[in-house]
Structures are given as structure tokens and as C-alpha cells.
Amino acid sequence: MICEDHAKGLVTNEIIASLGSFSQEKNILKQFARIGQCFSTTQHFKSLQPEEIIEREDVFNVDSSSGARYCMTDGGGLISKQMSDEINAKYGLLHCSAY
Predict the structure, then answer these.
(1) What is the 3-state secondary structure (H, E, C) of 54-93?
(2) Contact call for residues 35 and 29 (beta carbons, < 8 A)
(3) Which residue among 33, 38, 52, 61 sits deepest, i.e. has the most Cβ atoms within 10 Å of its Cβ?
(4) Boundaries of every domain in the chain
(5) Residue-wise pLDDT tens digits, 36-46
């Protein structure tokens, strides 16, 4: 949460715009997840080449009574066991359930 103060230049939409473009993500919850990552303690670990990234389709559920279609994917993503081991080694962790 932020308390806007136009006199001090604290305007929510301007702050979010300064973080980059999130418009390519059509799912509003995924947009919020991406924006939230900008304010988390997430640290850069490793840059990936495009060929190292596998994109997966979102998972959808259809409500049998209404026919409404709901996206069940949270946008968190997955990492390989190999990358998990690299992170553990770098930070001296035995096991971390966060990834």
C-alpha cells in the first residue's frame, strides 16, 4: 500500500509505470504478482538464454454450472532441479521449499 502525495511526487500509477510494462500479461492476478516481485526481496541469481526457457500454457478450469472459464495458474513459474541445486549451493542451503 502507498499513500499518494502529489506534492511529493508519490503517485501510484507513476510508480508502477516506472517499474516497467506489465500490460503484456492479460491476467490481472499475474500482473499484480509481477509488480509485487519488484517490491520483494527477490535477488537476481542467473540470466537465462531464450533457449533455456520453456513456456507452458496456463491451466484453465470450466465451471460446469455456468460455463465460466477460470485461469488457475498463479504465474509463479517453475525451476529445474539443477537450478534449485545451484541456488542451494550458492546460498549454503540444504533444501528450500520456496522453489
Answers:
(1) CCCCCCEEECCCCCCEEECCCCCCCCCHHHHHHHHHHHCC
(2) no
(3) 33
(4) 6-91
(5) 887 777 777 88
